[in-house]
Amino acid sequence: MPAATAGTDCDTVPSMRVLAIESSCDESAAAVLDADAGLLAHELHSQVPLHREFGGVVPELASRDHVRRLLPLVHRALDESGTAGPELAGVAYTAGPGLIGALLTGAALARSLAYGWRVPAIGVHHLEGHLLAPLLESDPPPFPHVALLVSGGHTLLIEVSAIGAYRLLGATRDDAAGEAFDKSAKLLGLPYPGGPQLAALAERGRPGALSLPRPMLDRPGLEFSFSGLKTAVLHAVRAQPLTEARRADLAHAVQEAIVATLTAKALRALDDTGHDTLVVSGGVGANRELRARLGAAARARGARVYYPRVEFCTDNAAMIAVAGMARLEAGQHDGLAIDTHARWPLASLAPLAAAAAGPPPP
Ligand code: KG4
Ligand code: ZN
Question: Are residue 90 and residue 181 in the same domain, yes or no?
Answer without folding.
Answer: no
